Every structure is written in structure tokens, then in C-alpha cells.
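Quick check before the chapter quiz. The format below is the same one you will see on the exam, so make sure you can read both the input and the output lines.
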Amino acid sequence: MNIMLFHSAFGLRPAVEAAADRLRAAGHEVWTPDLFEGRTFDSVEEGMAFKDEIGKDELLKRAVLAAAPYSDRGLVYAGFSFGAATAQTLALGDDKAKGLLLLHGTSDIAEGVTVDELPVQLHVAEPDPFETDDWLTAWYLQMGRAGADVEVYRYAGAGHLYTDPDLPDYDEEAAEATWRVALSFLETL
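Here is the expected output.
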């Protein structure tokens, strides 16, 4: 598969590159665009402030420009937290998208969006302060109405960005379970 993997609000940190390497080792071609142009952050608050400073429209433009040269190949869009929200927006707007892999995040779904049985897999902590139960229920129903084929995996007791070994949220057991399931999902696409 051809995978466009977007970073979280922490920026393009080593954990994102390690995830890309894990995907490459499984036989996938992976791109990791740097939407923050080299900036990384030590806290989610700093990263979110920087994200807000750049603005949603500019970040989306950067993501579209990063994906455009590869979209004819049929991309799987993937991302971590903020990057998952970005991946979701692009996948729902790309009729050639092969799948959507969401790690730690989702996004609003534009009114009237439809997809043709787009395979979607979400991995999220339980509970997650950024992805509440009510939000996830509404998101799941909206994705289904849009035509997506959605699988949701929850990880009790894990922190929000539990796959990043350099952050306090890291949960090795949940991270390894996520990667096992995600790699199996990618093999089906």
C-alpha cells in the first residue's frame, strides 16, 4: 500500500518516523509530510498553539499539496491525533483513497460527504480526553451514514498518544496491539 502518514500536534517527531519504518518493513511505501516545516514541540499545548497560529486552512493546503503527487496511486491516509483528523479530511475528499487509518484522533465530517465503503480503522484510548464517548458514538454513526466501513478499537487505561514511546502517554502493550491490528488491516486493502 501507499500510505500518507501525518504527524500529531507535537510535529514530525522520531515516533512518527519509527511508525513509518515499521510500515515500510511490512512492505508499504510511506510518506511523512512535515506540516510544521521542522518545528516540534514538547507539549500538546505548545503544538496546538502553533497549529492554531498557522491556521486550519493553511495546514490543510500543506497536506493536500503533500498528498497530491501520490493520490493517483490510491493512498491509504493515516495519522496521529491532529494528523488523524487531517488524514480523515483528505481521505473523505479523495475518491481514489484505499483506506483510512486513524491513530488517536478523528475529525468533524463535512455535510453531505459520501464514500463508497471506504475501509476505516480507528485506534483510541479509553477514556480519551480529546475523543469522548459521546463524540465517538456520533462520529461512528456519521461515518457509517457517509458510507465508510468503520472498525473502532479502544485501549482501556492508555494515554491519548499511547503509541509514542517518548511521551508520558506511552503504553507498550496497547501500542503493540494497535500495530498488530493496524498491519493486519493494511494487508486487507
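If your answer matched, good. The beta strands are 2-6, 29-31, 75-80, 99-103, 119-126, 149-156.
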